[in-house]
Amino acid sequence: MNKEFEHIRNQTIGTVEFVSPREIKVQLEINAPQNTAINTGVPQLFPKVNGFVLIPNESGALVGIISWIGIEYSPYPKRKGYKDFDLIDLPFPLRKLSITPLGILKEKDGQFEIERGVYSYPSVGDIVVVPNQEQLRAIV
Question: What 3-state class would DSSP assign to 61?
């Protein structure tokens, strides 16, 4: 298996749920970091407002800045083939983020550089990842 794809899979924190030119909503995975992310190799605070996330695409990765963090309540996730009639269906919290798109992060000659503006938006269901230290340095 390609190491790059293995690395991206380890950094995945959620999926795109809603896309507009000024806002992208992300549903975080249940096992996404709650306070500190260590899946990038170096501990970093996640999620936090004004933090950065990446959405990989065909031209590099869309860079987004977190503008809202919240919880929505939904029914408990159903498991196929399993029914428990004694279980009360209580609301289940789903963590969500709202990000504002900033630009595209591209890799050129082993170095990352950011191109301001977005011309290729993600689709619903695309993965969202936490940037590593090199990517963060290029963004900031």
Answer: strand
Confidence band of 75 (pLDDT split at 50, 70, 90) = low
Helix (H) or strand (E) holding 128: strand 127-129
Q: How far apart are CA 87 and CA 80, in angstroms?
A: 15
Supply the pTM of this predicted model.
0.79
Instruction: Determine the residue type at 36.
Output: T
Report the candidate in 47, 24, 43, 45 with the shortest Cα–Cα distance to residue 102. Answer: 24
Alpha-carbon distance of 12 to 22, in angstroms, equals 22
Task: Tell me how far CA of residue 131 lies from CA of 12, 20, 43, 80, 128, in angstroms.
Answer: 10, 22, 12, 34, 10
